[in-house]
Each structure stands twice: as C-alpha cells, then as structure tokens.
Amino acid sequence: MSRKPKKGYFVRGKFVAEGSELDIELKAELKGTTESSKSDLKKEMDALQDLGKELLTLRSDLFNRLQLPEILVNALAEAKRITNFEGKRRQMQFVGKLMRRLDEGEVAAINAALTEQKEGSGIEKALLHASEQWRDRMIADDDAVAQWINEAPQTDIQQLRSLVRQARKDMPGAHEANVQESTGQAARKGRAYRELFQLVRDHVMAAHAARVQASAADDDASDED
C-alpha cells in the first residue's frame, strides 16, 4: 500500500519533514536558539525513543496493522534479537532517530494500538477473574450451579454437574488443608477443578465476544440511519 507523502519543505535542496528533529532545530534557529528549545527537543527525542521501546511489546496483529516504514520495522526486529545491554541501548537510540521521522498521524496510530492492547489485556484479566469466581462459587454452593445453568442454558448440564461433584471430592479435607497451610504448600487441585474452569472460561469468553459483535452491529446500523 502506498504511503501518503509527508508534509514539509525544502531547505538548501534538502527536504525537511514537519515535526522532524531537523524541522524543530530550524524553527528554533529562526526564533533564536534557547536552552528551553533544546530542552523541549531533548524531551521529544526521549519520548519517541520510549515509544519505540513500547513498540517492542506490541502484539504482532496490532503491529502489522500500523504498516510502519520497513527500515523501522527491521530496526525494531534487530533490537528484539540483541541481548547485550550496550548493543541494545545503541540500537534503541537508532530506533529513536527513526521514530522522529514519523508524522503525527503515524505516532497517533502507534499510541492508539498500544492503548488497544492495554485495554484488551485488562478486559481479558477481568473475564478470567469472573470465570474463577464462578468456578469457586459452584464448587461451594449448589445454588450457584443452578444460577449458572439459568444464565447459560446451552451448557452441557450433565458434564457441568459431574465436574462440580468431582472437584468437590478432590478438595483437601480440613486436616490436609491445615497441614498445607502450616507448611506453606500450595493446595493441590484435581483435573476436574481445572476442566470446570475451562468450561466456564470458554462460555464467559464466547459470551463477551458475542456482546462485542452485537454492539458493533448496532453501531453500524446507527451509522446507516
């Protein structure tokens, strides 16, 4: 896909992209170079280098969506491979220089992708926590089992009840639990305990995905209206 030409201007036959390091330096010269302008430039350079470090943690699907310049993509890939501290530091300085070549739209897209990853991670953790709570409640109380069946009628009820019964049998007795607590040992969990969590988690995740899809469909319908 062709990329939009960058906005900028020519100085002594050299193209200067708006927002680039050279652009900032030239504008500072026109205004009269001051310590504050140098400080602002240093802050911007450090911020973009830090943003480059965050790019190293971005999921591949979100990263590929950005369609960053090939030279920056290769520089980031090289930074991931380098394990030597000094070598990695120098490579990230190079990444920072390449980051300063990006226009405002590209930088905004990077920030949006990082935000999407962080928010998505938070939602996933919340859903997993909800699944754990449902599992523990059903093991502890038959009323919770009935509530789950009412809210998720498509569940294989026979399998659910079987897993709950087995998970209860596998729970340590009072004496064993006291021994584990006194010795600092982690409580052993049986196979049914894990499978019950997987069953609940799959439903919780699927229900969330269905809600997101329904919400997106409603938004599309609203846009058409």
Quick overview of this protein structure:
With 225 residues, this protein is mainly alpha-helical.
Explain what you see:
- It is built from ten helices and two strands.
- It is mainly α and 225 residues long.
- Strand 1 (8-11) and strand 2 (14-17) form a beta hairpin.
- Helix 1 packs antiparallel against helix 2 (35-55).
- The longest helix has 37 residues, at 104-140.
Number of helices: 10
Report the average pLDDT across residues: 81
Helicity range of the residues? over 70%
Order of helices and strands: EEHHHHHHHHHH
Write the layout of secondary structure elements.
Blueprint: E1 8-11, E2 14-17, H1 21-31, H2 35-55, H3 60-66, H4 70-81, H5 85-99, H6 104-140, H7 142-151, H8 157-170, H9 174-183, H10 191-224
Helix pairs in contact: 1-2, 2-5, 4-5, 6-7, 6-8, 6-10, 8-10
Task: Label this structure with key terms.
225 residues, mainly alpha, 10 helices, 76% helix
